[in-house]
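INFO  loader      accepted 1 record
INFO  loader      residues=104
INFO  predictor   begin
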Amino acid sequence: MAEIWYLGIGTETLEGLEPRHAASFAECVELLGVTPEKWESAPDEVPGLKTGNPLVDESGYIYVMLKADEGDISGYEDKGWKPGWYRSALTIVGFEKNVRKKSK
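INFO  predictor   done
INFO  writer      dumping tokens
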């Protein structure tokens, strides 16, 4: 199962954090609207999330991220994907709205 995480800017470890949602890779891609170009880092690394703006970086802005391992993407029809972390353009509120719509 692929996982959806909320990660703040500058997150250096996943210690104490847990995924917010787990589902098939296809469902996660649909919920988050991510594409292969949104790849950030390998699955065993914590992505280096920075905006380049010290005012925003210090605010604790949170990204909605998809984490997928090799097993999650194997068999997926689009071969442009690779294991790792993908950054969604959605906010937490946008993601939660998508989950509510999907569950209806």
